[in-house]
Automatic annotation (TrEMBL):
Name under which the protein is recorded: SEA domain-containing protein
GO cellular component: plasma membrane
Record region (Disordered): 1-52
Keywords in alphabetical order: Cell membrane, Disulfide bond, EGF-like domain, Glycoprotein, Membrane, Repeat, Signal, Transmembrane, Transmembrane helix
SUPFAM superfamilies: SEA domain
Entries under InterPro entries matching the protein: SEA_dom, SEA_dom_sf
Gene source species: Conger conger
Chief localization: membrane
């Protein structure tokens, strides 16, 4: 880590008060000679071999950055590195951008924080701000984080003690008052600050910021940043810069992890696929049960129904076989006619029948001729056996 410059501030320190006064005699005492071609009269630490950060010389909550001849420990925004204690100490930090236009020329190597020119330029700017802000109560240091073109824009952090009553407005007014004094008095020590501009910035907008952007929200006010957990995360006693997340299947409620309700799982209980599966299974199961009940009812109703047959004949005709009701008998031819053969049937119609009822008692001999005076009533049913043109032996002889 680079050593602080030992040049005392030109503005004397004052005691802490409710509203720190803005130094009004900044231009009364001239700066030490300063120009853009010579480096400040400082003593740099002994050169370190490349790869000094490989030994992890910085504390846990900081990062190590290699420089051309040394290294430096970068703490998170909102704290500063204490060389004596080798820790990051919380502090009030008032960030801003200082635009320098006089007696300085931007070079591309200034963007490289490991270059020698960045180290020299940042030292000059830090010394300049220390002379301007050193009279405010609780002032510790001013760190240059980066340099970029336009003419030369320096992103700086003005660090004060945590108990200091200095505000962002006090810091800005003090710097702008010094710029105005340099513009009115062309002192040899004002050649770098003449025509400069200073704008306040938000500590939360730095990258990296004072809070973990994934788990916490950053709030900045009066030099102090505060981190609040995002929904679904909870704070722990191990860090005030980041928040913890509950394991899968749980979610954060009132700073504690609780189990997800039924049907939900995953990170912060955002996975509802299990609930969807349960709902679909219930619906399909209900439909299957309804179909099964409907099939059982259909089978029961079908077995109880009587067979329904259709017939062109009346119902009573199906009960009696060979019924001759409403059937007109076919007249048969006989060799001898007898009026007694004409009889009245039940439906008052005359038919050529013999009125006999009974079963088939026709003998085979009688079916061959018409000798019988009263042939069987059902002889006409035996078609193919009776021939009306058949003549017996005696009849042929008589002719």
């Amino acid at each position: 880590m680079t050593n602080e410059l030992s040049t005392p501030p030109l503005v004397s320190s004052t005691s802490s008060s409710a509203t720190p006064p803005v130094p009004s005699t900044f231009s009364s005492t001239p700066f030490e000679p300063d120009n853009s071609t010579s480096a400040p009269n400082t003593t740099l630490p002994p050169p370190r071999p490349p790869g000094s950060c490989s030994s992890s010389p910085c504390p846990f909550d900081s990062t190590c950055e290699e420089l051309s001849v040394s290294f430096r420990c970068l703490c998170l925004p909102g704290s500063f590195y204490s060389i004596a204690e080798n820790v990051c100490v919380p502090a009030k930090v008032f960030p801003g951008e200082l635009r320098l236009t006089s007696n300085i020329t931007f070079q591309e190597e200034m963007t490289n924080t490991s270059s020698q020119i960045f180290l020299e330029t940042s030292k000059r700017i830090s010394e300049l701000l220390r002379r301007v802000l050193g009279g405010l109560p609780g002032y510790i240091r001013s760190n240059v984080r980066e340099l970029r073109q336009g003419s030369v824009i320096a992103s700086v952090d003005n660090v004060f003690d945590r108990t200091s009553n200095v505000t962002q407005a006090t810091t800005s007014d003090t710097i702008m008052q010094a710029v105005q004094d340099c513009n009115n008095n062309s002192s040899i020590g004002c050649n770098l600050l003449s025509g400069a501009q200073f704008n306040d910035t938000n500590l939360c907008n730095q990258d990296p910021g004072p809070c973990d952007a994934m788990t916490a929200n950053c709030n900045f006010g009066e030099g102090i940043s505060a981190c609040t957990c995002k929904p679904g995360f909870f704070s722990t006693s191990y860090s005030n810069k980041s928040c913890a997340v509950c394991p899968s299947g749980q979610r954060a409620e009132e700073g504690k992890c609780v189990a997800c309700p039924f049907g939900y799982a995953g990170f912060n209980c955002n996975d509802s696929s299990l609930l969807a599966v349960v709902v679909i299974a219930c619906v399909l199961g209900g439909l299957l049960l309804i179909l099964l009940l409907a099939f059982m009812i259909y089978c029961c109703c079908r077995t109880q129904e009587k067979p329904n047959y259709t017939s062109p004949y009346p119902t009573e005709d199906n009960r009696s076989s060979w019924s001759n009701k409403d059937i007109i008998p076919i007249p048969r031819a006989h060799l001898q006619w007898d009026p007694s053969q004409i009889e009245m049937t039940e439906n008052r119609r005359r038919s050529h029948g013999n009125g006999m009822m009974g079963s088939y008692d026709v003998s085979k001999g009688d079916l061959r001729t018409f000798k019988d005076k009263n042939p069987s009533r059902y002889s006409y049913l035996m078609e193919g056996h009776a021939n009306p043109y058949f003549l017996g032996e005696d009849e042929r002889k008589g002719k």
